[in-house]
Amino acid sequence: MKRKLFIYGLMTAIVTLLPVDVSAENWVRFSPEGEYAIQCSTNNRFLANTLYLGGADQSYVRLVDEFDEIACTWVLNDEREMNISVRNTQGGLNEGDYIRFDSKIRLASTVNFTDYLMNQSFQFYYDADSDTESDEIAVKVCSQGNQKGWWKSRPAGDELGYEPTHTIETATIFYLIPVNDIEVPDYGQTSLTLTGDVSDEQIYDIRDNMFKLRDLDLTATTLTSLPAHAFSGMTSLVNVYLPDGLKEIGDAAFLSCEKLTNCELPLSLTRIGTMAFARTAVKKVELGASVSEIGRGAWSGCKQLAEISVDDSNSAFIAVDAVLYNISPNINVDMCGCSERGAKYP
Q1: What are 85-141's pLDDT values in tens digits?
Q2: Which burial class, exposed, middle or buried, applies to 56 when counting CB atoms under 10 A from its CB (0-12, 13-18, 19+)?
Q3: What sign does the dihedral 186-191-197-198 (CA atoms) show?
Q4: How far apart are the first and last CA of the chain?
Q5: How would you class 337 by CB atoms within 10 Å of its CB: exposed for 0-12, middle for 13-18, buried for 19 or more?
Q6: Mean per-residue pLDDT for 180-196?
Q7: What is the mean pLDDT of residues 285-310?
C-alpha cells in the first residue's frame, strides 16, 4: 500500500497565479540539485512517475493528490550549464527514469545527456520576489530544434504538459520542496498527540492508516467538531482525550471502536450524533450542561455501560438510575437505536 503524506500545516500550498504584468526580470535561472518533491500550485498535486504507478513508457507524467515517497521523489542534477535533468529514484537503469521535453516519462535505458541534452533537461527559474528559491518556480523546456516552452498542467489537472511559448505568463507555477523537509508518518505508532488546526482529511488519514493506535490526545487542538465516521472502526483505540472547545461529535464518530473505554466528554459539547459511540467499551457517560441533542443509538451495543450522569443545569436531559431521559417530553432517550422509545419518567 502506498504511504501518504501526513503533515499538519507543513505543505498546505497556497494557489498562486502569475499576474499579467510579470516581467522576465522577476525570474532568475538557478541550478537546484538533490532530491525534491514538485508540487503544482494550482491544484496542490505532486509530480509522480507514471511507470512506478503502473503506467506505460512514454506516457505523461502524472499529477497525484498524495505524496508517495518513491513515485514523487525526483532527483535534480545539473548536467551542463544549468540544464537540469529530472529523474525518479524508483529504480530502472542508469539511476532512474527521467522526464523528457514533451512531459512524458521515459525508461532510463535511453538516457544520453551528451547527444540529447536539449531533449532531456530543463531550465529552472525561481521568483526573485519570493523569500527563497523553493517558494515558487517555473520550469522551461528545452527541446528539439530549440523549440522552447514551459511546464503547464494539462487541462484535466492530472497530467503534466508544457506550453510551447516563449513567455512565462502562461506557465504553471510549481513548489520545489526538499524531500528531507517532508515528514512521512510512522503509521505503526500506538500513541499520537495532535496540536493546532486539524482537518477532516487528517482525521480520516489517522482512521484509515494507524491500525495500532491506542491513545489519541486531541486536547491541544482547535477542533470544534468531529466529522461523521471520524474514527469509526479503529479497533485498537482505547483512550481518546477531546479538546475543551469541542461542540459536536458527528454521527458514528467512534462506531465499532470496540476497545474504547475512556473518552471524557468536554463541557463545551452540545451535540452527540447518531451511533456516535455505538459498539464501544465505554463504561461511564457524563453529560455537561450544554448538551442539547443526542442522536439515536448513540451508545447502542455498549454492553459495559453502567453509569450515566447529567449536569444539574442541563435543560434538555436528566439521568435517573442510569437511564437517560428527555426533560420534555419525559421519555427516555433512544440510546440503543430501538424502533420504540422506552417508558416515561415518572
Answers
A1: 999 876 544 467 899 888 999 887 777 777 777 788 899 998 887 655 456 788 888
A2: exposed
A3: positive
A4: 57
A5: middle
A6: 84
A7: 93
State yes or no: pLDDT of 83 exceeds 60.
yes
* pLDDT at residue 333 is higher than 90: no
CB neighbours of residue 292 within 10 Å? 13
Q: Considering the entire predicted model, what is its pTM? A: 0.53
**Length in residues, the chain:** 346
Bridge partners (DSSP) of residue 309 are 286
Can you say how many angstroms the Cα of residue 155 is from the centroid of all Cα atoms in its chain? Answer: 23
Q: How far apart are CA 126 and CA 123, in angstroms?
A: 10
Contacts of 225 (CB under 8 A, 6+ apart): 246, 247, 248, 249, 250
What are residue 262's DSSP bridge partners?
Answer: 239
3-class secondary structure, 144: helix
For the chain, what is the mean pLDDT?
A: 82
H helices present in 1-90, as ranges = none
Cβ pair 152, 42 in contact under 8 A? no
32 phi, psi to nearest 5 deg: -75, 140
Mean pLDDT confidence for 162-187: 81
Integer-rounded Cα Rg, in Å, for the chain is 27
Q: Is 41 helix (H, G, I), strand (E, B) or coil?
A: coil
